[in-house]
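[Meeting: bench + compute handoff]

Bench side (C.D.) handed over the final construct sequence. Compute side (W.E.) agreed to return the predicted structure before the next meeting so the bench team could plan truncations. Sequence as handed over:
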Amino acid sequence: MLVLVLGTAVGVEYMAHQTRQLFSELQRMVRHEENLRADWGRLLLEMSTWGAHARVEKMAREKMGMDVPKLDDIEVIKQ
């Protein structure tokens, strides 16, 4: 009987230890997920900034020498 009681006590303590370790790992993973979500939000914001129409137009003018054509320069071709 004493062996069964001691065995059960050791088993309970082992399971409590495992539970604490798993809960600690779960908390680390939750924090990691929150950090990843924050990074994702920052990346979405950065992507929208880089792709903004005004920025693209500015870069086209400055780096590529592109400009909006004047009305006289536009030709419409009808088929």
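W.E. noted at the follow-up: The helical segments are 2-50, 53-64. C.D. will use this when planning the next construct.
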